[in-house]
Specification:
about 200 residues; alpha+beta; 2 domains; 3-stranded antiparallel beta sheet; two-stranded antiparallel sheet; 4 helices; globular
Length: about 200
């Protein structure tokens, strides 16, 4: 049996802004690939689901959602959820327009809404208002709130973790304390900067 407990002297640490930015960037990247794949299926019935995006999306979504996080922390308790989502949507439009203008100057803008009826400069379009609003709702409720609750248990070894040798005992007893985590006999584990993998 594997016994795992956090060292009493070391409190779990919240994710840094850089860690949260990384989570948000990956979330946005995956969502854009999934959305474009679903769009291709809805329009062309393409069962290959060829989702597309750009590496620029990592920077754009990570920064956009990190800003939404700061807005959420300031606005919660001050205005209702739907009003917050409306503000998030307006910010998303402003950020999409600004980042699109910058990338266009570099010849690197990966999107063009020119074929939509209510587009502005091909960089934003009113047809996406409802999808952006729904995305803002899901981002606050399912992504930002959960990410803010994540904690890292600081380790005493290297930044990328240390091996914990497998120890087996007849009674399943014994254990070794490593990086603020105690692992008992009967299983192997690997600690990676506070994340513990139990095989």
């Amino acid at each position: 049996m594997v016994a795992i407990k956090a060292a009493a002297s070391e409190a779990p640490l919240p994710l840094s802004a850089l860690h949260r930015w990384y989570v948000y960037a990956i979330h946005g990247y995956v969502c854009e690939v999934s959305f474009t794949a679903a769009w291709e299926f809805a329009v062309r019935r393409d069962w290959r689901f060829p989702g597309v995006t750009s590496v620029w999306a990592l920077l754009i979504y990570g920064t956009c959602i990190l800003t939404v996080e700061r807005m959420y922390l300031r606005l919660r308790g001050r205005c209702p959820l739907l009003v917050r989502c409306l503000l998030y949507t307006l910010w998303t439009y402003a950020w999409e327009l600004g980042s699109g203008l910058l990338l266009r100057q570099l010849g690197a803008c990966p999107w063009d809404y020119g074929h939509f009826r209510y587009n502005f400069m091909g960089l934003i379009t009113a047809e996406y208002a409802l999808p952006w609003f729904c995305a803002a709702f899901l981002v606050e409720r399912l992504v930002i709130r959960k990410t803010l609750r994540l904690r890292l248990h600081p380790g005493g070894g290297g930044a990328w973790g240390d091996e914990v040798e497998e120890e087996e005992g007849e009674g399943g007893g014994g254990g070794e304390e490593t990086g603020g985590v105690v692992v008992g006999g009967g299983a192997s584990a690997r600690s990676a900067y506070g994340y513990l993998k139990v095989d």
